[in-house]
Each structure stands twice: as C-alpha cells, then as structure tokens.
C-alpha cells in the first residue's frame, strides 16, 4: 500500500493476441511531444498511470484483455491505453515494439512501453513505465499484475528497449 501511495504521489508531481481496429502508427505522422506519451497532456499521462495502478493484483491470463478475465502482458497494455486515454494499440508485443519512437533507458518517462526478452525471443514481454524506476506488467501464468523495479537484476538482464507513443 505504501508503494502504491508513493507511485501515485510521484505521478501527480512529477505477447499476445489479435490486433485492434486502429493504433498509433508512427511518431512522424503525429503531434509533437510534451512529456511521457508524446502529445499527451500531463493529465492524460496521470490518468493512464492511475488506471494502470488500479489493476495491480488482477490475475494473469494468456490472451486476457480485461480485469474480469485477467490480462497477459500486451492485453494489459492494450486495456490501459484504450480505457485510460482512448488509444487502441496492437495486441502483441512484437507489433507494439514497432510503434512510436525508441527511447533510451535513461530517458524513460511515465507512459513509455518497456520491453524484455523473457522467453529467449526479443520483445517477448512488455510493461508500462510509471516513473521512479517502476513499471507495471502482467508477468506469467499463476501471477498477477504487479508494479516492479526496472533496476532489479532480472529485468536489467532482459531489457530490450523502450518505445514512446505519440498521440
């Protein structure tokens, strides 16, 4: 609970299924940046983060795309962006890794998508960076949506990169 409160305070201050009907195509064709998700207001990024945090504890389910049925990693990203700020994204990690612009690890901002190799395949796992070194993700069968530290050795060794979406 303390971590949850810290994440909300920080934000206030400062693989997997079928494609959707539409998604953000590329950085070049969309509006320029403010912070976090390019073109998004700070209120939109805050809404996205709060919506994501409200899902902590939701069970993992392969192919899952809702709090009622559970989430897989890309289903969580798809749901949070669609419900939080009305943006439909691809429903698989490989296609998500091609959307938006690449971001250096030391330039991550809330709302950026972070990618990992957790299965021996590049971009096999995705989460949403929320700031202060934390990201939210739906880990694996038997797990649940959780907020974790990207600086943990496990994630550092598997880090594939990050993407910043443009709205």
The residue fraction in helices comes out at: 25-40%
| Domains, number | 1
In whole angstroms, the N-to-C terminal distance is: 32 Å
Number of helices: 5
Shape: globular
Q: Residue ranges: pLDDT <50 for 5 or more in a row?
A: 1-35
Radius of gyration: 14 Å
Strand content: 15-25%
Give the mean pLDDT: 81
CATH topology: endopeptidase fold (from Nostoc punctiforme)
Which sequence of strands runs across the widest sheet?
A: 3-8-4-5-6-7
Number of strands: 8
Relevant CATH superfamily: endopeptidase domain like (from Nostoc punctiforme)
Instruction: Provide the structure class.
Output: alpha+beta
Query: CATH top level?
Result: Alpha Beta
Account of the 3D structure:
This protein is α+β, with helices and mostly antiparallel strands and 167 residues long. Helix content is 28%, strand content 19%. The chain contains 5 helices and 8 strands. Strand 5 (125-131) and strand 6 (134-137) form a beta hairpin.
């Amino acid at each position: 609970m303390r971590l949850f409160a810290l994440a909300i305070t920080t934000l206030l201050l400062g693989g997997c299924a079928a494609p959707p009907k539409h998604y953000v195509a590329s950085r070049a064709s969309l509006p320029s940046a403010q912070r976090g998700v390019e073109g998004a207001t700070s209120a939109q990024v805050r809404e996205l983060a709060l919506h994501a945090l409200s899902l902590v504890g939701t069970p993992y389910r392969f192919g899952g795309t809702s709090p009622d049925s559970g989430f897989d990693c890309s289903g969580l990203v798809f749901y949070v962006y669609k419900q939080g700020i009305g943006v439909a994204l691809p429903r698989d990690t490989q296609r998500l890794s091609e959307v938006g612009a690449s971001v250096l690890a030391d330039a991550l901002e809330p709302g950026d998508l972070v990618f990992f190799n957790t299965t021996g395949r590049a971009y096999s796992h995705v989460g949403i960076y929320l700031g202060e070194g934390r990201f939210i993700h739906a880990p694996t069968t038997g797990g649940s949506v959780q907020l974790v530290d990207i600086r943990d050795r496990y994630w550092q060794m598997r880090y594939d990169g990050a993407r910043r979406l443009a709205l």
